[in-house]
């Protein structure tokens, strides 16, 4: 995983979590769900890239 891809995955997780928490606090469940989806996409991106770095080829 390149540094840019790792940064993008981390950024998606952080932004998604922030959006989710603020929207949930304000009672906007639709936006909270979108934030949760963004956070999940960031986690999935990080998870799919992780095995490539551990192969050692």
Q: How are the secondary structure elements laid out?
A:
Elements: H1 3-26, H2 29-53
Helix pairs in contact: 1-2
How does this model look, in words?
- With 57 residues, the chain is mostly helical.
- Helices cover 86% and strands 0% of the residues.
- The protein has 2 helices and no strands.
- α1 runs antiparallel to α2.
- The radius of gyration is 14 Å and the shape is elongated.
- The mean pLDDT is 88.
Key terms:
mainly alpha; 2 helices; 57 residues; single chain
Short description:
The protein contains 2 helices and no strands. It has 57 residues and is an all-alpha fold. The longest helix has 25 residues, at 29-53.
Describe the main β-sheet briefly: none
Described by the principal axes of the CA atoms, the overall outline is: elongated
Total number of helical segments? 2
Whole-number radius of gyration? 14 Å
- Structural class per helix/strand content? mainly alpha
Task: Give the helices and strands as they follow along the chain.
Answer: HH
Low-confidence segments, ≥5 residues, pLDDT <50? none
Mean pLDDT over all positions: 88
**What is the terminal separation in angstroms?**
14 Å
In terms of DSSP E residues, the strand content is: under 5%
Beta-strand segment tally: 0
Helix content: over 70%
């Amino acid at each position: 995983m390149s540094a840019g891809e790792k940064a993008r995955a981390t950024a998606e997780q952080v932004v998604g979590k922030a959006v989710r928490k603020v929207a949930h606090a304000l009672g906007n469940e639709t936006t909270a769900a979108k934030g949760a989806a963004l956070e999940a996409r960031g986690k999935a991106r990080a998870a799919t890239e992780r095995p490539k770095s551990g192969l050692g080829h």
